[in-house]
Structures are given as structure tokens and as C-alpha cells.
């Protein structure tokens, strides 16, 4: 089986399932594992796929995602190759995606073991008292996450109550009317928030605790979820 992965978090999942020889193509954002990033054929960005490169690989399976990839590009590929289109919006959906990928790639047992390990890790996560928070993924315009996202589910499990949970997907936020939460979380991706952004917001919201956060551990569904509970505990040390 020759597999092309168009989703960074799923590329890492395929690695965890032991599909070294099967995976032939990945995107330029599939940075984990580093060995694959350096050796596998890169087929463009998640939203700027090189369809000719993908076709040249003659894949038996292409794994895409409804949110991360462009509908028209995925449809064009589906006309020629088998495509597994994933759609992950919460914790349960992520585990179901792992099971599905395991089924499609003949790694059912490994997938089930990974699901059990993730469930066990989260079962032992004590979040403590919940605090209100806003999780920023972008600036100019400032954008946050709504309640129908995987990130929102991870926020809840980490003990953060999303002030924008009543909204959908990724709403823009006007800082002039932002109701100050107890915490502001600045993600490392897709926008690479840095210390200067943290400092600027601290001046604007002196009573709010502002944390730079690892966006991968809030937004990557797949095997990286194993690392999330320990990271969420670390965040609590700053609370």
C-alpha cells in the first residue's frame, strides 16, 4: 500500500502505527517525525497541494481532512484515487478517526492500543477548578476558537472554560470589546505568537494571566494526544 497524507497530525499518527514503508507523500507542514520530513516526498501545503506530484506517487490511499484541505483539491484527487476524508471536531471524533485510519491501513490492533493509551492518559488528568479563557490562533484580525472545535474540547479537558464556546468555528474578536477572561492563551500555531505579543496584551489586560501555549498539543488529533495531558498539567503550574 502506498499512502499520501495531507494532514500533519495524521502523518504523525501513521508513523506511530508503523507505516514507514507505506507512506510515500506528505505536506510541507508534516514536521513530525523529523526523519519523514527530511526523506518523504513533499506534495505542497495543506491548502496548496501539488496534484501532479501526488498523482506521480500513484497512491493506493490518500488521507485528507475536511477542515485542513481544500474541498476542490480533495475532490479532484478523489476522482482518481481512493480518499479517506476525515472530519475531527472533538475528542471522541479524534479517537474514532484513529480507529478508522487503523482499519484502512491494516493497523487495527496498534490503533486500538493507541486509543486505549490516550483514554488512560486523559482519565488520570486532574484539571482542578476551571478558569475562563480565550485561546487566540491568529492576529490581524484576532481570531479565537468556537465551541464546535477540537481545540475547545482540549481546552475543557485542560481546565479552561472557553468564553467563545457559544460561537462556531473560528470567530474574529474585537479586542476593544473583549470581556477580559482569567486567562489568555496564545497558540504557537497557526500564528506563531511570541513574547512580544504576550507583553503587548499584558499592558492591555494587566489583571489577566497570559500564557504562550503549544498549539500542537491543543490542536493535533492523533498520537500527539498522548502528550497532551502531561502538558496540560505543566500549564497548571503557571496558574
CATH topology type of the largest domain: Rossmann fold
CATH class of the largest domain: Alpha Beta
Which strands sit side by side, in order, in the main sheet?
3-2-1-6-7
Runs in which pLDDT lies below 50 for 5 or more consecutive residues are none
Mean pLDDT: 96
Distance between the termini: 47 Å
Query: What is the correct CATH architecture of the largest domain?
Result: 3-Layer(aba) Sandwich
CATH superfamily of the largest domain: Nitrogenase molybdenum iron protein domain
Tell me the series of helices and strands, N- to C-terminal: EHEHEEEHEHEHHEHEEHEHH
Instruction: Assign an overall shape.
Output: globular
Helical/strand content category: alpha/beta
Total domain count: 2
Rg on CA atoms, Å? 19 Å
Helix content: 25-40%
Provide the β-strand percentage band: 15-25%
Enumerate how many helices there are, as a single number. Answer: 10
Number of strands: 11
For this structure, the quaternary state is: single chain
Give an account of the 3D structure.
With 239 residues, the protein is α/β, with parallel strands linked by helices. It has two domains: 3-121, Rossmann fold; 131-236, 3-Layer(aba) Sandwich (Rossmann fold). It contains ten helices and eleven strands. The chain has a five-stranded parallel beta sheet with strand order 3-2-1-6-7, with helices on both faces. Helix 5 (91-104) runs antiparallel to helix 6. The longest helix is centred in the middle third of the chain and has 16 residues, at 108-123. Residues 2-239 form the Fe/B12 periplasmic-binding domain. Keywords: Receptor, Signal. This is Helical backbone metal receptor. InterPro entries: ABC_Transporter_SBP, ABC_transptr_periplasmic_BD, Vit_B12_bind_prot.
